[in-house]
Structures are given as structure tokens and as C-alpha cells.
Amino acid sequence: MHKEPSPADRRLTTLARHLDSSSVEPMDSANQSIGVSPTSASAGARNSVFHHVVQAPEDPILGVTVAYNKDPSPVKLNLGVGAYRTEEGKPLVLNVVRKAEQLLVKDSSRVKEYLPIVGLADFNKLSAKLILGADSPAIRENRVTTVQCLSGTGSLRVGGEFLARHYHQHTIYIPAPTWGNHPKVFGLAGLSVKTYRYYDPATRGLDFQGLVEDLRSAPSGAIVLLHACAHNPTGVDPTSQQWEQIRQLIRSKALLPFFDSAYQGFATGNLDSDAQSVRMFVADGGECLVAQSYAKNMGLYGERVGALSIVCGNADVAGRVESQLKLVIRPMYSNPPIHGASIVGTILKDSSLSQEWTIELKAMADRIISMRHQLLDALHARGTPGDWSHIIKQIGMFTFTGLNSEQVAFMTKEYHIYMTSDGRISMAGLSTKTVPHLADAIHAAVTKIG
Fold it and tell me: Could you tell me where the Polar residues compositional bias lies (predicted)?
């Protein structure tokens, strides 16, 4: 007895007919052109709609790691990446972070629902207190709006785009040199990027006179990017007295300070000390922006945890500013991820975990400081020409060695040491075992190339 094919069988038969080229009726000339569309796989690369796209250069910082990974040498050393490493050269996950994650995993009430556009409420409140101080008048007066963003980079980008839309001045002054991503982030956000003098190659310290002159000549109302502490790439920070002079100058010209705080607690090992520059500007009652990152100080690099705080003139303005920040964030990434911010919130709201974090944080900062002293001692022991005292005068993750691009290339080729071409090295990438190798390379570079 003949059995009727099921609906599923009929669909499969129809599909097979469509897939069989012999069963396809000839197309008219207009339809045939679809077969040689530039987007079809058979068209070949030369007919691609993207055939004009050129190979982009590697990111100057991330590209260092790409080159390092390709090097088979057993003595290779990566000092380019801005990430903490242990004495054994391994990435570190803080014990307190693991504890916080365990608490989160065991909490069966937690769900994976979307966060609000502005992020996790506890995280935002605690982040503002961490950078501005728990007793900050601005927080007490509800003049601060804080939104969770995608680490420091995302916080800068959201802040930059907000300013491009709502601030009367579209020029931002950034230090020369600065983190390589700053000009791109602010330029693409819609701001015009200019520089002010910051680093003096002759002294390998701060060009304070140049800084003051350039900010004094900036147009009234211009935005000024300031590194809160541990300036990247130079490791050179203003003194407290110099910060006060900078504050007075910025306020007298009605400039708008935008702080990038990527290393709070990571520079000196003290969270409050590393936030003093920001708090100085907030204490005078003026307005400012602060981008925070938890990549370095909690080791949450890949979790992309950050915050943007805008200190406003009053609570009413702060509320309206937040409403507009939502309109920046919504079409950009809609809302931020929940896991990393939950880790930070869990640690900051628990006094025991917070205390444990500060101990681990100080240990990281102290190890970097120790690497500075060991490198200086090693160069002195070799009689390396020049004054290398800037290695211990500079602060934070990076040292601006003063080596030129030719010397850097020599060290990469002959000693398999990788760093950015401007001579910046990550002190966190060093260990007691690798300091002699770096000292040998520096000594050879400056004696052979000069």
C-alpha cells in the first residue's frame, strides 16, 4: 500500500530539489548576474567588495606581544604589555578576586539579566567613593553621576562622546607623550585633540614650565586630560605642590579637567595617596570628569571593568547629565557586563575583603618598586654610561628608559627583549631572574649605539 509522504519528507524533497543544480531552471540574464556577485565565494578575492582594504599596521603596544609570541628564543622577554606579572613571569589572579567569585557562584539568587544602561548600582556608588573619598562633599551633595563602562578605555570614550555632544568646547589637550590610545579614543569621539608639554627628555622628568605655558595659552574652557597618578608611558608625576599650581591654573582659565585613573593604588600601594590629585580638584567645588579602570589594581584586565564619574555643579545638573550619558551608551553597547562589576562590588562593600585587597595591591606595587631598585643596581654594577636615577624616581607600572628606537631595535634583535619603540618598559614584566638580562642589553645598547 502506497504511503503518503509526511510533511517533513516533503520539505526535505523540496530542499533537495533546490540544492540540485540540475533541477534548477535556467535563469534570465538579470538573475544570472547574481551568480557572479562580488559577495559570492566563487567570485574570488579580487572581486571582493573589500578588495580596496589595505593591511592595517599592528597596534604599537599590542603588536609588541604579537612579535614576542613569534620569537622562538628561550630568553625572550616581553616588557611591552601593561599587565602585572608575578616573580615567575605568570599572570596573577588576586586571591581576593577568587574569593569574591566563589561567593558569587554560590549565591543561587543571582541571575544573568541585563543590567541597567548605567550599570550595577552598588558598583557605581562604591567606585565613586573609592576615587573621590567616602567623605567627599560632592557625593554627599549628590553632585556626582557615575556610570559603569567598559574599563578605562570605554569610560574615556563615553566621556569624550558626551563632551562632544554637550560641552561648548570641543578641544581636548592631552600630555605629550601619553598613552597611545588617547588621541584615537577622543578623536573618534568627536573631539579635536591637541597636546601640552609634559615630559622633558633632558631630565627624564616633568617639563613643568612647558606644561604651565601650554595650559596658560589654551583657550578658556578647553578640556584637559590629566593622568591621576603613574603617568603612562613616562612614570613621571607632578609633586603635590605642582598639582596645586596646575589646579589653580586650570580653575583660573575655566578649563575642564578630565582625569584618567588607571592605576589607583597600583602606583604607591596606597589607594588614598594615588587619588589625591583628583580629590584636590573635587574639593574646590569645581566640575570634572574621572575615568576609572579596575584592570590593573584588581587584575581584572579581561573583565573590562571601569566607571565614568562626572562631578557636576549641583544635583539637578547631575541627574540631567546621567540621562544624556544613557543616550550615549545605549546605541554604543546598550549596557555593561555584570560579572566583573559584581566582583568589584563584592570586594568593596565587604570590609574584610577590602582589607585583603589593599594588602595584595600593596604587594604588587612593592614588587614593581623592588624591580626598579634592582635594575638601577644592575646598571650601576655594569658601569653603564649615563644617569639612570630616573628609574627609581619614576612611579607605577612603566619606566621611560630614555632609550631611542635604534637602541630598542638592537635590544630586540640581539637580546630578544620586546618593548615599545619609544623605550617604555613595563616594570611589572621584570623579575629578579630577568633583571640581569635586561641590564646586559641596556648596557650593550648604550655603549655600542650611543
Answer: 21-41
